[in-house]
Task: structure prediction
Amino acid sequence: MALPFARSADFAIDKPAGEPCPNLDAGHRCTIHAELPERGFPGCVTFDCFGAGQQVTQVTFGNRSWRDHPELAAPMFSVFGVLRQVHEMRWYLADAATRELSEPLAAVVVATGARLAELVGMPGHDLRMLDVAALRAEVDPVLLEVSAAVRAGTAEVSRRHADLVGARLAGADLRGADLRGALLIAADLTGADLRRADLIGADLRGAVVRAADLSGALFLTSPQLAAARGDGRTRVDPHLARPSRWADSVV
Result:
């Protein structure tokens, strides 16, 4: 309902922000959820709000619905746009908190995460006024420091924001590589070693990660995995949702 999408390879139709998707039923469920890719909506499969939607509907607006209270639609959707970004930052900080870090850096990670957790509990009006850019400016240096600490001792491979669309990287040793924001669309990463690689913001749409080792990869998200093409040999950390369409058997 809240977000727009345009007709493309990811979405079969145009939908303006604030208008319900035609596939949304009266119970707030998707009527084609089981066959989204086949119906032309792979973009829906790879989207994740990191819990922001639940926070907005269940906490910020106290389980009130935009259907029952149309006057809440605009402020609710505005707050969602803010919280979605804040919750994504919280996801990265939660990942950082699981890493082996020096005590001072670990303390900064915990404190920064606690600050964001406190912010998401603010009233809707205050959340709408939240300066997300300023928050990112506060969080990004912490994540960069965590990335450098975790990747220390690995080969200095930096492809930050690199255009690697369709790149042939099968079997590549990318341990500890800096792939922040890299375009890896349709790249062949079959059998590649991506342990401890920093993948924050990397575009993995259509990337082939069959038999690749993504265990321990930094800041990897479930939406990134959902956008990639893996199989039963692809190694990922247990806390990440393994795409159901990835074959469980070796292919």
Q: What stands out?
A: The helical segments are 42-45, 52-60, 73-97, 103-119, 124-128, 132-151, 222-227. The chain has a mean pLDDT of 92.
